[in-house]
Amino acid sequence: GNPLYFQSARNVTVNILNEKTKVLTRLVTGPQAVEAHSQKFEVKTLSGKLLFSADDNEVVVGAERLRVLGAEGTVFPKSIETPNVRADPFKELRLESPTRALVMEAPKGIEINAEAGSLKATCRTELKLESKDGEITLNSAKIKLPNLPQGSSSSAGSRQKIYELCVCPNGRLFLSQAGTSSTCQINTSVCL
């Protein structure tokens, strides 16, 4: 009914041998680390549910949730594959690549949803929305393009606040003061 203690000033090693006295597994507990040498390492709950396993091919975390508590987050030097990335409640979620590109790929689509707030995408150079075979739909009660360039006014002294939206051959948009007919052709210098 008493616990069994192993004490050592250096380490304690437990070896499991086969019938030819070859070491199959080894557990070494020392002052610097605990090492397990085997073909596979597993940690299970009392009920037998797998929590963690590691072998030459993969490492499996079987818990319902994996939490990484480091202040700097988690670094994945290659790629990560997961069905769900979620922040703790009321915490910010950031997917960041400080020096390279951030790529999200899925054969059946990617959905980014902000049910209770805004969605913001910012970048330093270009923001591209591209659909190779389909279409791009902007579905909103209001669509604003506040910083579009304006063509020069054709009639002097006109205070009219109605503009037409013009498209350059390269796809650039600009505003041109509306007239009785299209004024886009007059202001094509904006396209240069």
From TrEMBL:
UniProt KW keywords: Cell membrane, Cytoplasm, Cytoskeleton, Disulfide bond, Glycoprotein, Membrane, Signal-anchor, Transmembrane, Transmembrane helix
Entry's localization field: Cell membrane, Sarcolemma; Cytoplasm, Cytoskeleton
Bilayer topology term: Single-pass type II membrane protein
Pfam families: Sarcoglycan_1 (PF04790)
UniProt organism field: Anhinga rufa (African darter)
Record-level GO cellular component terms: cytoskeleton; sarcoglycan complex; sarcolemma
The UniProt record lists the keyword Disulfide bond: yes
Encoding gene, per UniProt annotation: Sgcd
Residue intervals passing through the bilayer: none
Protein known as: SGCD protein
Similarity section: Belongs to the sarcoglycan beta/delta/gamma/zeta family.
GO biological process: cardiac muscle tissue development; heart contraction
InterPro entries: Sarcoglycan, Sarcoglycan_gamma/delta/zeta
